Amino acid sequence: MGAGGRSNPYEQEVKKSDVQAMKRAPTSKPPFTLADIKKAIPPHCFERSLIRSFSYLIADLTAVSIFYYLATTYIPQLPHPLPYLAWPVYWFVQGCVFMGLWLIAHECGHHAFCDQVWLEDTIGFILHSCLMTPYFSWKISHRRHHANTGSLEHDEVYVPKTKSNLDPSAFYLDNPVGRTLTLLVKLTLGWYIYLTINAAGRPYDKFASHYDPRSPIFSDNERVLILMSDIGLLSFSYFLYRVAMIQGFAWVFCVYGGALMVMNAFLVTITYLHHTHASLPHYDDSEWNWMKGAFSTVDRDYGILNKVFHNITDTHVLHHLFSYIPHYHAMEATKAIRPVLGEFYQSDSTPYFVALWRESKNCLFIEPDESDEKNKGIYWYRSKYD
To answer: Where does the record place the region Disordered (predicted)?
Structure first.
């Protein structure tokens, strides 16, 4: 009213992007090369600053310390039953900061933290071990995911099933109650199920696990690194056990376990939504190439949490093109490449909790278009069984 009936240009842009995001992503050869995209990005965006990267690490660690102090100092003093309300609030806030720390370790694995690889691996190993993630194991499989994104044969995670390969239980879970139970399992146990038995990962001819140095996920020269990852997890687990012997297991869960569960839920949500959308194609070997795979992902909007999560959420397309760009340059670089990418850039500003339910309903399995005889190697999500 006060603006004389004029609409907000930003709102128009968001609505336009939402409409475009629901259209299928192009699968044709793009009219640009990776060099063209890189040329559009300001050169300083590729520079890693040890001081700047450390500043984000220190900021996150400071936030963890402050929230820990406030929770352990004041929540126990609250009158009954307020602590039962206050602890979940703490878990959510602290879990979001944990997610930020986890993503800094993720940057270490991509050589986006600093120029010294040994320092990146040291920081990443410590952070991920303290967040119950096998650093080297996940670093290796995650890099392979980046090298094979969208490939039905070679991608390492979130490899969707075709209708014929669906588990029979999928049909019975395709209802509100079934989807709720499935999401509950994914958000609470999904991360550890994936690490333990490679659920939702690439099929292997024998048992695959991120904890097993003999797993087919890894090559012979990588097995010692997997063992180191396990030692890191066991060492921190023993530390938690010793603390629990002094403070009690309930105390450890309140100050650490609950926040870790929130972090794991966000980790599954973020990775799932980046690679699951009705607009995204998957390819078999007859159609896949690295560039097509890199565009088989979508940027999402988590509101204020975009900053807490160091913008991995809303700059993921860029991340799959240039994973070594530090997060503090990612927004600028994304803005620079969008005019070049045009319709090849996919984004969706649907709130993440709405999108999580929608994608779990609409992206059940993949199939090629029956009417498209020329592109039988391109698969799209489906939500109907007949």
So the answer is: 1-26
